[in-house]
Every structure is written in C-alpha cells, then in structure tokens.
Design brief:
The chain has helices at 4-15, 55-65, 88-95, 116-119, and strands at residues 27-33, 38-42, 71-78, 101-107, 110-115. By secondary structure, the protein is of the alpha+beta class. It has one domain (4-128): Cytidine Deaminase, domain 2 (3-Layer(aba) Sandwich), CATH 3.40.140.10. Strands 2-1-3-4-5 form a 5-stranded mixed β-sheet. The longest helix has 12 residues, at 4-15. It is globular, with a radius of gyration of 14 Å.
Length: 130
Amino acid sequence: MIDYKKMIGLANTCMQNSYSPYSHFKVGACVLTKSGKYFVGTNIENASFGATICAERSAISSAISQGEKDFACIAIVSSSGEYTPPCGICRQVLSEFGDLEIVLAKDENNFKVYTLKNLLPNNFDAGDIK
C-alpha cells in the first residue's frame, strides 16, 4: 500500500527549496519507485523560461540518476495550495515509464489520486516511432 501522506510530506519539504524568482510559484514532487525508494524534486526556473525544470522531471531525473526506472507513483504539491496537475511535458515524460499513479495534493489530508492514463490519454510512445 502506498503511503500518500508520506509522499506529500516529502514533496512539501522539497518544495521549500524551489528556485522560482520569476513566477514565485513553488512546486514539489516525490516519486516512489516500485522497489520502495523515494526521490524528490522541485522546480528550478531560469530567465530563459524554456530552460526551466519542473519538479516532476526533477524528481524523475534524480531517481534515474540513481539507477531507478520503475515507478509506482508521484505526488505533486504547489505553493498555490490547490491541486496542481503536471504540465503536458511532464505528463509525456512520466508516460515513458508506464501508467503510474498521480497524487495531486493541497496538503497531507486533501489529495486526489489519478492514473497517468486519466491525465494523458493516447500518449505518444515508442510504438509511435516508425
């Protein structure tokens, strides 16, 4: 059983490290691997907005850097205090690793759980490369 509250807490803690001097919109994410390891990430903005890294991709990158590629779930929080879904680019990156659960949280007691397929139906995948 996935401990969503633990994941949300870890994402909240990491969100405090956000580098967001332009938008002031902090985001934190925590990804859980199928082997039971947690990896966190936060958004890192850049004056060239296209170079900004979202929290979800930051967490996934951290896990991959440590040799993990099998994901079960990702929890996402933001400084808005609202449910903050992953952007389209993050949804596509997440889809590379299967239909993981997506937890959108206002706080540790108010969260919604989706599957990635709910948020990104008909994703582009390896089968589309011909």
